[in-house]
Structures are given as C-alpha cells and as structure tokens.
Amino acid sequence: MTPIMSKSDAAALVSAARIRRGLTWAEIAKELGAPLVWTTAALLGQHPMTREQAARACAFLGLEDEVAESLQLQPSRGSAPEVMSDPTVYRFVEALSVYGPALKELIHEEFGDGIMSAINFQVDISRRPDPDGDRVVVTFDGKFLDYKW
User: Which of 4, 54, 75, 85 could disulfide-link 49, Cβ–Cβ 3.0 to 4.6 Å?
Assistant: First the structure.
C-alpha cells in the first residue's frame, strides 16, 4: 500500500495543472460552484474538500485520483516561514501589525467582549478602479463570538 500524497505535493500538482491548462482560480471556483478564496485555499491545502469537490476539481484539471484523495484530508493549517515572508503575504502581516490593535478596540466598542471567528468566516477579494491605481479590496467576514463567563 502506498502512502497518501501530502497536501503540499497535491497543491504543487494543482498549481502546475492550473498554469499548464491556462486556467484562473476563478474559473476553477466557478466549475466547483464554490467561493473563489475558499476554493483557492482548499486547492493549496488549507481546507478539506468533499469527495465530490475533489473529484470534480481533479477531473477539470486532469489530475489523478491520488490528488483527489489528498485534497480530502484534514489540513495542518498555516504557512511556512518562507511563505509568511513573501512580500504579498507580509503586507497582510504588516497591515494587521499596524491596524490590529485599532480593529480590536473597535470590535470591542461595537460588539462587546469577544472576537471575530476565523472558523465561521468568509473572505473575499475584489478590484476597485481608482485614478491613482487600482485598489485591492479584501473583506473579512467573521461571526462575532462573545466571551461567556
């Protein structure tokens, strides 16, 4: 019996197939009928997919059943240090370093003592035209979880 392919190996095959087929993440998400950011994260190994989602994604990308098997596994979420230091990813770290304390204060002021869930959570990305250069709009949409004592 062979071991199940690692999620990182499956992600590398997904990325290669996407590039070689000239597909966008949006086209894959549309094929799966799933949200864009979630689909991208799942195919990069950060969420488990259902058997049907994994099979459909692999059929669309021309990948083997071994990749679909891996895509269904529970992930070890998070990113390696080299990923976190990538300039695009690091801008998010930097933004939260600067604005995180203010967002915390504003969440507490508006909602009370609690946190925004990152489990009951959606994230979206869009482009907003601007005369000074297009803007990246990232929306975090998490359920408020109050501390119950």
Answer: 54
Task: State yes or no: is 135 an active-site residue.
Answer: no
Query: Which position among 79, 85, 97, 117 bears the catalytic label?
Result: 117
The catalytic residue among 91, 97, 105, 126 is 91
Q: Residue 60 pLDDT more than 90?
A: yes
Q: Which residues pair with 128 in a beta bridge?
A: 135
C-beta atoms surrounding 84 within 10 Å: 12
Supply the pTM of this predicted model: 0.86
pLDDT beyond 90 at 122: yes
* pLDDT tens track for 82-116: 888 999 999 999 999 999 999 999 999 999 999 99
Q: Is 94 a catalytic residue?
A: yes
Structural domains of the chain sorted by starting position, each given as residue range(s) with its CATH number in brackets: 7-71 (1.10.260.40), 81-146 (3.30.1160.10)
Q: Would the CA dihedral through 30, 36, 42, 48 be positive or negative?
A: negative
Q: Is 79 a catalytic residue?
A: no
